[in-house]
From TrEMBL:
Superkingdom per UniProt: Eukaryota
Pfam families: ADK, DUF1995
InterPro entries, sorted: Adenyl_kin_sub, Adenylat/UMP-CMP_kin, Adenylat_kinase_CS, ADK_active_lid_dom_sf, Chloroplast_ADK, DUF1995, P-loop_NTPase
SUPFAM superfamilies given in the database record: Microbial and mitochondrial ADK, insert 'zinc finger' domain, P-loop containing nucleoside triphosphate hydrolases
Keyword Hydrolase listed: no
Protein name: adenylate kinase
Family membership: Belongs to the adenylate kinase family.
Sequence ranges of Low complexity compositional bias: 1-20
EC class: transferase
Record-listed E.C. numbers: 2.7.4.3
GO molecular function terms listed in the Swiss-Prot or TrEMBL record: AMP kinase activity; ATP binding
UniProt cross-references to NCBIfam families, sorted A to Z: adk
Region annotation (Disordered) ranges: 1-44, 533-555
Length: 555
């Protein structure tokens, strides 16, 4: 049974997400646009490779767009938005278990939004060190081996929140409140966040991260025996396990965190919007539900924005769910166009001028034309709904692939599925275009740049190494592929995913007794894994010296 033969009823098409399924996404996917009403929700992001759910309030992961168009604000309301931001700086609370990636998230949020990071641990040490009245009270309890009372901690936090830098820039409250009493104290003083983030990661992943963690006592560097092993045997020999990284102590810390979290969340339940975001299930059901498509659009959007923000200029997106896999007869050009529109409008919303490019006709005579999967693409772009704010023709323009398409007012370029055709090579035009673009981002969406036969029926050999080297110069910012047994498209065995700046992750699809399915994280790789490495992730070798034949292919 192939993917193309799978159809679904409306109920089946609304495929649920596998929850709690591992999910990772770096940083907060919000833009500090004008303050939004409490009814809107943010799809918050995870730093961990296995965060299954994130809770959030009062913001949006992308501009709030209606069913037609994207509700793009662009620069038309930039002045009003800026004024609103100055009047109401962002206020964020974040909560996460040990090893959930909370520290990484806090750094990224602070860097992006300029908030004042307030950690109660750091604050407590600073108050004690400075000898303030609150610090003296806290020190008395600490010296006697007692927990600092809720009221003392709350007074310390409130004092910090009242300082000028916090009032001007906004705040990120890290790990506080930790009890119902602390939350209620803040409520009584009308101190509430705009956004409440909960990083949720399965216990087994958290335990593995902590128990596998190792410390180099000479350098202070942290390693992980599986995810980040030491560079050599000399370093490995001197690694030690921290005293609080034993299985029993980690379990105890997790239980304490859960109790605290369960006590705090009810205070913000009127604001809370929890979304489970593991890998979507039933991906062989065609057509994909709107929920599944939006999931992948947002994944691509967040990863690409992070890469662009990190000054990456040559990027590529490889996403091969069935509707975006041209090797399947369920390929849908409309899904590709929706993805490109979402990506383009997101950057246009930041005031970027985006040129969306589709390669034109190549070759002559019998070899003239463009690849079949791109036929009609330019026309579709022209008639698509690009929102109510005049994005098309101002912030978003269309062009072909080539140096002549690069205008000085363009800020970035999105190339739709650039590919070689029989007898023709698009890479020369692409290279001329990227040379003309200079340090402006060029983003390839589902490129297919392998060498095709020339007009003589043989592979083009002249300059092949240089072409392949150029194609490899684009850094992948998002990749998703389903994994099947070689030579088939059914059943789905698992998935390979990477979202910048994170590692490649291999998942196994698991059938549940109730007829449902879920995806389980097997292994992570810094570089894209080879077919043998993918196979070994599913069937670990007993002997490291054994060779394992590849049994999986990427869909």
């Amino acid at each position: 049974m192939a993917a193309s033969s799978s159809s679904s009823s409306p109920a089946a098409a609304s495929a649920p997400f596998a929850a709690p399924g591992p999910h990772r996404r770096p940083g907060l996917a919000l833009r500090p646009s004008p303050p939004t009403p409490p009814s809107s929700s943010l799809s918050c992001c995870r730093a961990s490779p296995a965060a299954a759910a994130v809770s959030s309030v009062s913001a949006t992961a992308a501009p709030n767009r209606g069913p037609r168009g994207m509700g793009l604000r662009c620069r038309a309301s930039e002045g009003a938005a800026a004024a609103a931001r100055k009047e109401a700086p962002l206020k964020v609370m974040i909560s996460g278990a040990p090893a959930s990636g909370k520290g990484t998230q806090c750094r990224m949020i602070v860097e992006k939004y300029g908030l004042v990071h307030i950690s109660t641990g750091d604050l407590l040490r600073a108050e004690v060190s400075s000898g303030t009245e609150i610090g003296k009270k806290a020190k008395e309890y600490m010296d006697n081996g007692m927990l600092v009372p809720d009221q003392v901690v709350t007074d310390m936090v409130v004092s910090r929140l009242s300082q000028p830098d916090v009032r001007e820039r906004g705040w990120l409250l890290d790990g506080y409140p930790r009890s119902y009493a602390q939350a209620q104290s803040l409520e009584s003083m009308k101190i509430r966040p705009d956004i409440f983030i909960v990083l949720e990661v399965p216990d087994d992943i958290l335990i593995d991260r902590c128990v596998g963690r190792r410390l180099d006592p000479e350098t202070g560097k942290i390693y992980h025996i599986k995810n980040f092993p030491p560079e050599n045997d000399e370093v490995s020999a001197r690694l030690v396990t921290r005293s609080d990284d034993t299985f029993e102590k980690v379990k105890s810390r997790l239980e304490t965190y859960k109790q605290n979290s369960e006590a705090v969340i009810p205070t913000y339940s009127d604001l809370l919007n929890q979304e489970f975001r593991g890998i979507p299930t039933r991906l062989n059901n065609i057509p994909h539900s709107r929920e599944i498509r939006k999931y992948f659009y947002n994944e691509v959007l967040v990863a690409t924005r992070h890469a662009v923000e990190d000054k990456k200029t040559r990027l590529q997106i490889d996403i091969n769910i069935p509707e975006l896999n041209p090797e399947m007869d369920v390929y849908r050009i409309g899904t590709l166009m929706e993805l490109v529109r979402e990506l383009s409008l997101s950057f246009a919303d930041d005031g970027k001028r985006v040129k969306v490019c589709v390669q034109g006709s190549m070759g002559q005579g019998a070899f003239a034309g463009i690849p079949l999967q791109l036929a009609g693409t330019r026309k579709i772009l022209e008639i698509m709904d690009w929102g109510e704010y005049g994005a098309k023709g101002t912030f978003i323009n269309f062009g072909a692939v080539g140096a002549s398409e690069v205008d000085k007012e363009d800020d970035m370029f999105i190339l739709i599925a650039p590919q070689n055709a029989v007898g023709n090579c698009i890479i020369d035009d692409m290279k001329a275009m990227t040379d003309a673009a200079g340090d402006r981002p060029v983003i390839l969406v589902n490129p297919r740049l392998k060498d095709m036969p020339g007009s003589s029926g043989v592979m083009q050999t002249m300059g092949r190494d240089m072409r392949l080297k150029y194609a490899a110069s684009f850094e992948t910012c998002y990749s998703f592929r389903l994994l099947f047994y070689a030579g088939s498209f059914y059943p789905i065995m698992g998935a390979l995913r990477m979202a910048y700046p994170n590692k490649y992750e291999i998942y196994r699809r698991v059938d549940e007794p109730n007829g449902q399915e879920r995806y389980v994280l097997l292994e992570e790789f810094v570089e894209k894994p080879t077919p043998d490495e993918i196979t070994n992730a599913f069937r670990p070798r007993k002997n490291e010296n054994e060779k394992s034949a590849s049994g999986f292919c990427k869909g």
